[in-house]
Amino acid sequence: MTVAFIILTLPNVMQPVRHLPVPFWVTAAVIGRDLLIITIAAAINVMTGFRGFKPSWLGKMSTLVQVIAVTLILLAAVTGYSIYLPTVYTIVVLFAFLSGVHYIFQVARLMREEEKKTATEA
């Protein structure tokens, strides 16, 4: 998805249509969420050795929204009908933000559970 958004953000990749190319802020949100998740997971793994990271349901929804968005963006490029794209962009950014925040809380919960489990086994 990251590569798709980068390509769709580049100028002159597609025919000029209103609301295309994809605004940089949308692509930055998609990439920023992925970087946040990777950075947090790596930092926690290095500091604690915790590896119990699993995708959250909101993260999966965010990915689904991105897939649908890319489809709708390509459809707009082909048909020239793009009035809906600002709404699509907003929804992509909203899900990226919410899933990033949700991921932080989910990892904190998983780490607390792992800590309790380790404490009871000791």
Description:
With 122 residues, the protein is mainly α. The chain has one domain (2-10, 24-121). The protein has 4 helices and no strands. The protein has helices at residues 2-9, 24-48, 57-79, 85-121. It is elongated and about 65 Å long. The chain starts with a helix and ends with a helix.
- Total domain units: 1
User: Element order, helices and strands?
Assistant: HHHH
Give the fraction of residues assigned to helices.
over 70%
The main β sheet shows up as:
none
* Gyration radius, rounded: 18 Å
State the end-to-end distance.
43 Å
Mean pLDDT: 89
Low-confidence stretches: none
- The computed structural class is mainly alpha
Shape: elongated
- How many distinct beta strands? 0
Beta-strand percentage? under 5%
* Assembly type: single chain
Helical run tally:
4
List keywords for this structure.
122 residues, mainly alpha, 76% helix, elongated
Short description:
This protein is an all-alpha fold and 122 residues long.
Q: In terms of topology, how is this protein built?
A:
Layout: H1 2-9, H2 24-48, H3 57-79, H4 85-121
